[in-house]
Amino acid sequence: MPDSGSGARDTGGGARDTGGGTWDTGQGGGTRDAGRGVGLGVGGRVTREALGRSVMGFRLGRLCCSGVVVMSLSATGSSLPLRIDIVSDVVCPWCVIGYKTLERALAAVGEAETAVVRFRPFELNPHMPPGGQHLGEHIAQKYGSSSAQSRTARERITALGAGLGFAFRFTEESRIYNTWKAHQLLRWAHESAGPKAQIALKLSLFDAYFTQGQAVDQVEVLAAAAGRAGLSAEEAAAVLYDERYASAVREEAEVWRDKGIHAVPSVVIDGRSLLTGAQTEEVFVRALTRALDARTAQAGDAGAGDAGAGAGGARP
User: Fold this and answer.
1) Positive or negative, the Cα torsion across 117, 60, 249, 142?
2) Which residues pair with 274 in a beta bridge?
3) Splitting the chain (316 residues) into consecutive groups of 10 residues, what average pLDDT does each group show?
4) What is the value of pTM for the model shown?
């Protein structure tokens, strides 16, 4: 189960660390808005008061395995690809860990090549000024964590990343940045080149920020990341300079907030299962398997209904 004693909550103006560490939310950790939403607890827990309330436009159903909420949903065609929406931010380390873990889970259930994954926007620091802020200073001010606590948390995140094949390279000079431009670029990648291109760009941005320590609020940095992802760096820069996707990103972010999503990472599988925080591979596998089983059951019910209607309508 997620650690209910650790986590970060966004109270509207920013995140506050309730556990003591740099984004240290434990396995299943994430950042959430405590002032809005449906009462999803820290690390993906769900309070009993939340059951029966609305998330994603559906009413919450039963609480399942760690961090999973099953919601009612109209039938989904089993012939369509599995759809996964990930609400996340570029400067969220648990978003990296969560996605890399989800990748393994998709491979484990045989959906690595067929599932359609789309990243959705969420800004952890919407009011961060250009140039960002020293990470240690930011953590101390926002979360109240000591230098020792932050160092311990970063070491843990680094170790988890290494186990998933991702290199977190925090330094004493690391900074944190606003990601408004990055989300516009991710929207452009999806609209112009499709979900695979958006994933490639997201991973390139994770690498630029967490591995290379680059300023991901700068147009030239973002354009270069797009180029490394196989997209046009020149077009990426043009997109950011004219902000052609700014309104669409703002509206998209608001849609997901209105649906009750106030934690990153938040993973929605096939529109029916919500997982908050960087869950384990086992949790992801169970949720993916449940979604696939539900598709099979729905297809069977539809087939039985069609057969029954045909039999009822037959005449000698």
Assistant:
1) negative
2) 69, 268
3) 34 32 43 35 35 41 38 51 97 98 98 97 95 94 90 96 98 97 98 98 98 98 98 98 98 95 93 93 97 86 58 48
4) 0.78
